[in-house]
């Protein structure tokens, strides 16, 4: 009686944990935005208030006129740790999720030109649409996962995690050297090329080949 219900990792987005994002992890995307190919992972954070689930809309912040989609594989941490060895990294993974890293590109460009952090461009409410939890067993080889995204039925992004510059074990090890990973954290592993602007009333559909699809509506935030 009165015992707290056990938390279920399959609803990790309700746990209030960190969302750690990797940028420029696909050479074709780094090139399309005219960035150099990184020699070390580029990292930024989203707060847990960024999560949005199917059935609720992605809200376009009032301050942007160029909101971009970025489809990404998310890695859900099942066992926390600090200074995790690459050889042990996959033991810390509980599963995966399909994610969008919604990005106010005009604001990001402004922040970049002023040398300011990307928080306003990347961390706003609903900036992290997320699918159902995918148990680890359902993706035996996360280095060969095909991702795609359509806007109003038109294919915009199609890529494979084999194109990632830094692998999932490398990222887990690298991040955990200076940010302790906790159960329920999510790592967004970067986006392939094809990012583009979305508009009010657009429908975004994204998928992991043979595993799942998800659909989100876009709505401009109201005053
Ligand atoms: O450097 C830029 O102009 C943009 C970088 C990103 O938005 C990075 C990502 O979030 C990504 O590559 O997934
Ligand atoms: Mg991204």
UniProtKB/TrEMBL annotation:
Against InterPro entries, the record matches this protein to:
Fumarylacetoacetase-like_C, Fumarylacetoacetase_C_sf
Q: Quote a single Gene Ontology cellular component term.
A: mitochondrion
What sequence ranges are listed for the domain Fumarylacetoacetase-like C-terminal?
18-218
Protein's UniProt keywords contain NAD: no
Where is coiled-coil annotated?
none
Q: Which UniProt keywords apply?
A: Metal-binding
Q: Record's superkingdom? A: Eukaryota
Q: Which GO terms describe its molecular function?
A: acetylpyruvate hydrolase activity; acylpyruvate hydrolase activity; metal ion binding; oxaloacetate decarboxylase activity; oxaloacetate tautomerase activity
Q: Which reaction does it catalyse?
A: oxaloacetate + H(+) = pyruvate + CO2; a 3-acylpyruvate + H2O = a carboxylate + pyruvate + H(+); oxaloacetate = enol-oxaloacetate; 3-fumarylpyruvate + H2O = fumarate + pyruvate + H(+)
EC number, UniProt record:
3.7.1.5, 4.1.1.112, 5.3.2.2
Q: Name one GO biological process term.
A: carboxylic acid metabolic process
Give the family from UniProt. Answer: Belongs to the FAH family.
Name-wise, this protein is: Oxaloacetate tautomerase FAHD1, mitochondrial
Species of origin: Periophthalmus magnuspinnatus
Taxonomic classification, please?
Eukaryota, Metazoa, Chordata, Craniata, Vertebrata
